[in-house]
Amino acid sequence: MLSGKRIILGVTGGIAAYKAAFLLRAYQKAGADVRVAMTPAATRFVGVETFSSLSKHEVAVEVFPENRANTESWTQHISWAEWADLFVIAPCTANTLAKIAHGISDNMLTATVLAARCPLLICPTMDGEMYEAPAVQTNLETVKERGYHLLEPEEGYLASGLEGKGRLPEIASILKESSRIIPTNNTEGPLTGQKVVVTAGPTREYIDPVRYISNPSSGKMGFAMAEAAQQLGAEVTLIHGPVSIPKPRGIETVEIESAADLFEEVKKEADADIVIMAAAVADFSPQETSRQKIKKKGAKTELSLTQTQDILRWLGKHKQDGQQLIGFAMETEELIKNAQTKLEKKNADWIVANSISEPDAGFQSDTNSVYLLDGKSQQQFKGSKKEVALTILQTIFG
């Protein structure tokens, strides 16, 4: 649910501020793009450079920062508020909670709260007696009445040395609550309610730590298929190899490297309603992988290979009732004949076939020319990969 989402992580001046760095990384691993807003007090616990380096974004602290040449910086809270899908404040001190409850905007974090168009998740974190104080409890009720989301602190050993309720919740709990409240794709279409798994990009089969067998796949066609399925209303999981193109927003992504990695992830998702195997999977892997770089001097010039798992064929053998299996075939000759053979041998329902010898088609191109086969007929589609992907799914699923 967090993949492709844009999250502002607010960090305030409590000892738990250091945990926000781990939370940021967890959001990133879930596929989210994260920007960090800190209160001035938070910078006393964790340096701005830490969050800037981790997030790959500038960190917002002051509305009017010193030595800032950009005269539009004071409107940053507006642009960030428009950018975000979710605003999470973790940890949130009693001081910042009070400011939010009473609409005070004396730093970039609190100003952005007032400008936010997205859900706000507050994780109040403080000493146990502070948390139970009447003023804090009143402020908690106030922010709840205004529609903000609260994740109550956990009990345990606190920075004061006392036991009580006030600890920042575990990162897994914050991610779970974030996933629950973040806006989701509500597109209605022919694939609404369907779970779709798409594989994309190349795999890498390592010879040694610095050399591998792979192919030039960019992942563009597979990513386009995932976006098309989402556009038609599906819940999509995208499993992809090493690529440099941006991840699609709102789609859960899983990164893999080798064919064996891909097989393990596909098996986890084998109960999907629709599986689209668009990945360019290496057919061969080195029989042995060296742990150290193989030196040129004295090295063998022959490389022994072994076949990798035929994932599409495995899916065909284990296909469930009603499940639709769509494979891809990249050929250099006898395109239709070879694609038809693949359709039958793999027990697929559809094969999308294209030739790398055609102009404006193939691995790195933004356009494609393909044939869609179902064993009875064939149809040709041309255009951008996004247009072709959408046309393929509309043709199959109406």
UniProtKB/TrEMBL annotation:
Binds 1 FMN per subunit. Residues 196-398 are annotated as: Phosphopantothenate--cysteine ligase. GO terms for biological process: coenzyme A biosynthetic process; pantothenate catabolic process. Residues 5-175 form the Flavoprotein domain. Pathway: Cofactor biosynthesis; coenzyme A biosynthesis; CoA from (R)-pantothenate: step 3/5; Cofactor biosynthesis; coenzyme A biosynthesis; CoA from (R)-pantothenate: step 2/5. Its EC number is 4.1.1.36, 6.3.2.5. GO terms for molecular function: FMN binding; metal ion binding; phosphopantothenate--cysteine ligase activity; phosphopantothenoylcysteine decarboxylase activity. Residues 1-195 are annotated as: Phosphopantothenoylcysteine decarboxylase. It catalyses: (R)-4'-phosphopantothenate + L-cysteine + CTP = N-[(R)-4-phosphopantothenoyl]-L-cysteine + CMP + diphosphate + H(+); N-[(R)-4-phosphopantothenoyl]-L-cysteine + H(+) = (R)-4'-phosphopantetheine + CO2. Transmembrane segments: none annotated. CTP binds at D283, K293, F328, K342, K346. Its cofactor is FMN; Mg(2+). It holds the Pfam family DFP. Keywords: Decarboxylase, Flavoprotein, FMN, Ligase, Lyase, Magnesium, Metal-binding, Multifunctional enzyme. In the N-terminal section; belongs to the HFCD (homo-oligomeric flavin containing Cys decarboxylase) superfamily. In the C-terminal section; belongs to the PPC synthetase family. NCBIfam families: coaBC_dfp. HAMAP family: CoaBC. This is Coenzyme A biosynthesis bifunctional protein CoaBC. The lineage of its organism: Bacteria, Pseudomonadati, Balneolota, Balneolia, Balneolales.
